[in-house]
């Protein structure tokens, strides 16, 4: 939560003459789309992105890797130009330095681009564990289209793929490799898959499903080293237990590191990421940061839902509108593996004062576990039939008292609504809280 989310006085210099945005990813695309619809949008917007291709839907790289989507499906709608706004995008160009004194950014091509206001939207990169062999060819992350294309090409040759990390991204990567023809194995340090989102029962159901498809899964294991094939390419992983696992390709999916270096080197206040206030302003009032490269209080970000909220705040702020600042809110998680329905939010285990309601039908592979405190929902894990997930999430966010429908809560939305209507409990309509694609 951001404690100081109060309306801030409108800055006098609007519209902004030249807004420069570094990074051409999901946050930038949405920010520009939103800005060009504002009455007092900047007169000139220049986007500088390191990736060579136009902005695309990064979220869909997982189904793309699994072969369920084409390049066309990844494409984001082109932003329509607006009268009075000059919009330009420089692709395949990395910004190497911010010259705050002269208000300009310098690029690797030796160009200097002046700004009146600067936005840093540089995202994050794969965190690489400091183990011997991590620099070998055939070892890398799953972060962008280049990574996805390299993985698809490697997988088509068959062989063994090893994914380090059994969270959302790791499982999606492993399933993609398997579907492309590799023998895929997941290494997870925790004793359960998706340990940040799932309780033990849901994690076991998920594991059984994935193993049934042919994925190999090892939990409670630690990567100790990666071994060379003698030509600088990975040949195997060595676990802390000493076990050796042959591997032709290794995907690291065990955390992300915010790309905060540009801000840090320019002297902006940084912690794990670039520190911003509730209006996404850094310690320099002419520079903003949003998305995975920013930090609000102690929080950094790895899912798009809070980033969309940041975009709304920053777009209005940049257009000179007074706005309540960004307030961090819980997010829900879905796994994008075809045929697996999973929806979760809130804590994985009941805390003191929380009670757990559970419904489990092992025959049908159905599992639902809700966490309530004083009749209000604080967490849920749904496996199998997840249709009720967004509705439950909406009620949790609205703080709806659900005591009157207690006996039906884990069964279905219609039953709950009928019972609550009998008791005249007001309900919130579902507001698509988990909407995620741009
Ligand atoms: C495979 C995959 C699946 C995902 N699935 C989901 C999901 O299901 N749900 C969900 O909510 N989130 C998902 N995410 C996370 C989501 O994609 C990110 O939260 C989101 O993309 C972050 O947006 P961003 O703009 O901050 O960073 P990014 O989208 O990463 O964009 C940052 C851009 O900045 C560029 N850049 C960095 N440094 C520089 C520089 N110095 N100069 C110029 N350009 C630079 C980078 O090349 C990149 O193009 C997924 C991520 C991946 C990789």
UniProtKB/TrEMBL annotation:
Its EC number is 1.7.1.15. GO terms for molecular function: nitrite reductase (NADH) activity. Pfam families: Pyr_redox_2, Rubredoxin_C. Residues 18-298 form the FAD/NAD(P)-binding domain. It is an enzyme of class 1 (oxidoreductase). Residues 332-392 form the NADH-rubredoxin oxidoreductase C-terminal domain. Its cofactor is FAD. Keywords: FAD, Flavoprotein, Oxidoreductase. It comes from the Bacteria. Belongs to the FAD-dependent oxidoreductase family. This is Nitrite reductase (NADH) large subunit. It comes from Halomonas cerina.
């Amino acid at each position: 939560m951001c404690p100081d989310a109060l309306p801030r006085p409108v800055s006098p210099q609007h519209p902004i003459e030249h807004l420069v945005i570094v990074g051409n990813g999901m946050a930038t695309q949405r920010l520009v789309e939103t800005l060009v619809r504002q009455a007092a949008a900047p007169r000139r917007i220049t986007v500088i992105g390191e990736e060579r291709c136009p902005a695309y839907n990064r979220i869909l790289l997982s189904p793309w890797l699994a072969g369920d989507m084409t390049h066309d499906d990844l494409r984001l709608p082109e932003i329509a130009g607006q009268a009075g706004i000059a919009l330009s995008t420089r692709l395949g160009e990395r910004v190497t330095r911010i010259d705050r004194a002269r208000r300009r950014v310098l690029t690797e091509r030796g160009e200097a681009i002046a700004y009146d206001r600067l936005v840093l939207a540089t995202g994050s990169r794969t965190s690489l564990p400091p183990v011997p062999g991590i620099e070998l060819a055939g070892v890398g992350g799953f972060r962008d289209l280049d990574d996805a294309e390299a993985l698809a090409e490697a997988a088509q040759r068959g062989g063994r793929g090893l994914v380090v990390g059994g969270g959302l991204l790791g499982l999606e990567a492993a399933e993609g490799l398997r579907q492309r023809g590799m023998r895929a194995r997941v290494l997870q340090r925790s004793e359960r898959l998706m340990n940040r989102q799932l309780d033990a029962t849901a994690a076991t159901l998920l594991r059984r499903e994935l193993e049934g498809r042919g994925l190999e899964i090892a939990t409670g294991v630690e990567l100790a080293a990666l071994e060379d094939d003698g030509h600088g390419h990975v040949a195997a992983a060595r676990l802390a237990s000493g076990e050796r696992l042959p591997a032709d390709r290794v995907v690291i999916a065990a955390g992300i590191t915010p790309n905060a270096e540009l801000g840090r080197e320019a002297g902006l206040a940084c912690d794990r990421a670039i520190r911003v206030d509730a209006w996404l302003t850094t310690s320099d009032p002419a520079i903003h940061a949003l998305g995975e490269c920013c930090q609000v209080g102690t929080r950094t970000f790895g899912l798009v839902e809070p980033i969309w909220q940041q975009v709304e705040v920053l777009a209005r702020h940049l257009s000179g509108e007074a706005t309540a600042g960004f307030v961090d809110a819980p997010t829900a998680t879905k796994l994008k593996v075809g045929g697996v329905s999973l929806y979760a939010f809130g804590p994985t285990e009941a805390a003191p004062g929380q009670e757990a309601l559970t419904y489990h039908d092992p025959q049908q592979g159905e599992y639902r576990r809700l966490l309530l405190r004083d009749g209000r929902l604080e967490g849920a894990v749904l496996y199998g039939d997840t249709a009720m997930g967004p509705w439950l999430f909406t009620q949790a966010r609205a703080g709806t008292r659900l005591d009157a429908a207690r006996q039906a809560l884990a069964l279905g939305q219609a039953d709950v609504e009928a019972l609550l209507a009998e008791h005249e409990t007001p309900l919130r309509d579902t507001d698509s809280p988990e909407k995620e694609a741009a």
